[in-house]
Write the structure tokens for this entry.
Amino acid sequence: MIFPMNRQWVLIGILLLWSNSGFSQNLQHLDSLKTIELIDTLFIDHNINNWSFRLFTNYKEQRFKLSNEDQSLTYFPNNPSGIGIGIATRKLLLDIAFNIKGRNEQPTSRFDMSGTVIIEKHLIDLFFQTYQGFNVRNDFNNSESFREDLKSLSTGINYMYMFNAGEYSLAAMKSGLSRQKKTAVSFGLGSFLIISNQSADSSLVPLELVSMFNDKAQLKNFTGIGAGILGGFSTLIVLPANFFLSVNITPGIGLMYKKVETELAEYKPSNPLLYQLQFAGALGYNSDRIYINLTVGNGIYSTDLDFGNKALFSLTKAKLAIGYKLTGR
């Protein structure tokens, strides 16, 4: 009697395991389908009329500034220019740049990638960049040196909800795929996230300048993770002969978790506030087949490191893009 009962439970257990395995596979299959459908809905534009390919040349310079009440040091890369290719639709704009090192004897090793997602009234900008090798300039006497061991990694995302996107064409400004018929102004509200890390084999402050900064400024490694809210003002001005001009100003404030490693100790700055300001402008031309955009912009993030020391991150960029629409209109 005992043996048949055990065999029955074993058979029932096998059936339950088999059915559960099949059910789990079905759920995974459904989850995969939902994920694919979500990606397809958000990023893929199936209308060939909305696609274009673009070539561009760009200038991008990420700077880091360490300062106190009396002195400041600015860290900036070499070879800031590049060329690249990209695609643009009504939903997605993706550009990949290749850096031009030229004949600089001390080039900065760098990788940059940025993208924009446009979903009706929602605008999402994201970026990722990693650099190694920076010039260090003492702003007191403009003396410079090159630090090959200095590394920087920054990534972030900005989200903006445009209140009157029906009158203000985001696609006209960002991707050149549609024409703005009349001048418009738009306001937006959103949020941002930024992750930043600067590191070196020894203090970021050059040895000959150590006496100008306190020991808490002898940074070997800085990590910051910040998030906050932002507001935006944008205007697009329609000009004759298919030209347009746009201006965008976006201030913001947030909180940042910070960790500092110096030559002697580690500490976490007590003031969490993070201030942000971004401004950008664009001059564009949009014909039936060809569009040309010249964009310039600057983003600044500022925060306190305690002990009278401050950190400022800035990203200056300019881009000239020439796009070709697959279908003219």
About this structure: The chain has one domain: 44-325.
